[in-house]
Design a protein that fits this description.
It contains four helices and three strands. The chain has helices spanning about 5-20, 30-35, 40-45, 65-85, and strands spanning about 25, 55, 60. A three-stranded antiparallel sheet has the order 1-3-2. Residues about 80-85 have low confidence and may be disordered.
Length: about 90
């Protein structure tokens, strides 16, 4: 995977986790505060995450697909950590 694509994925995961941290619904300033990302970067990535994040009034809400993605990533991470010592 290209370095730019990897950074984009990491950024989008960071945004999803920030929204989850606010109980699945976060305003833009909360996402910016939690992630430390620039305004432009957040808007850029949110625009490309329509399957994972919906805008509801002034809040961004994680979708079922977004939650499933994070659960799957966490399973892989746990598996990788549990097999590391083998």
């Amino acid at each position: 995977m290209e370095d730019t694509q990897l950074r984009a994925k990491r950024t989008r995961i960071k945004i999803l986790r920030a929204i989850v941290k606010k109980n699945g619904s976060a305003c833009f300033s909360e996402i910016r505060s939690i992630t430390g990302l620039s305004t432009g970067s957040i808007y850029y990535h949110l625009e490309r995450m329509k399957n994972y994040v919906l805008k509801n009034s002034k809040y961004y809400v994680i979708t079922k697909e977004g939650m499933e993605l994070l659960v799957e990533l966490d399973k892989r991470k746990d598996f990788a950590l549990s097999t590391k010592s083998i």
